[in-house]
Specification:
Elements lengths: L3 E12 L2 E13 L4 E5 L6 H8 L7 E6 L2 E2 L33 H14 E4 L11 H10 L15 H14 L15 H13 L5 E5 L7 H16 L6 E6 L2 H6 L2 E6 L2 E7 L11
Parallel strand pairs: 3-8, 3-9, 6-7, 7-8
Antiparallel strand pairs: 1-2, 1-4, 4-5, 9-10
Length: 280
Amino acid sequence: MALVSVENLQKIYPLGKQKVEAVKKVSFEIEKGEFAAISGPSGSGKSTILNMIGLIDLPSSGKLVIDGVDVYEGYDLSKTFSDSGKLNGDGQNSEFKGKNKVPNKLDKRITGLRRSHIGFIFQTFNLIPVLNVYENIQFPLLLDSKNSAKCPVDSFSKKEKDEWIRFLMEKVGLSDWEKHKPSELSGGQRQRVAIARALVTKAPVILADEPTANLDSENSKQILSLMKELNNDKDLQTTFIFSTHDKRIVQMCDHVIHIFDGQIKLDEHKTGSNTYDLEA
């Protein structure tokens, strides 16, 4: 069974009286352990697809299954509110005015799955400025899990959680920077904190939106080499999915979904390289 299964996933944005179909009913599967990319030019819809997989953006229609969980089963996506405050689809139905963007039960399901199954690495890092390296990595473990799906680390003792965080700091090369705030770190170091934070809940899927966008070439090489190393680590069993137009990342991936104008042009399986080739 695929770790991530996308079936006829669609995203429509209302634009006045018009509708913009950003993602046009795409279907694909990501297997456990893959180093995968959703690749395409700017405006192709790749980041929108990644955000829907990451449960940040709500689809207008379609099916999304993550680790065997059908995320939107039992709900009509055309009758839920998008982030714009309008209904998914054409936004003309007034029946749902004044109601929540999504039903409460679905909101709890999404929140729980996002915490237990998804690690997200943002291109702008999104670290908390007042927290140090250790605290930024620890933060997802402090979020309330009483009413959401459990992640493996929830059952750890306080000592085990501390050991796990320190293991990740060592893995990403930040053991000597534990007490430093984000403002005291380089861009590459901030990205390493973001990677460790994404891994800390032992989420089976790690999503990275244009991870090299704010890094120079040498830091990009180091970060992608680290991600590939983590992907190859049998103890971590981490699946990576990138949104990118960086051809060097595409070369490293063993599964590439090529997107153009919101549609899949090619779903490619290949042998990925282990290095980020600065000469490519």
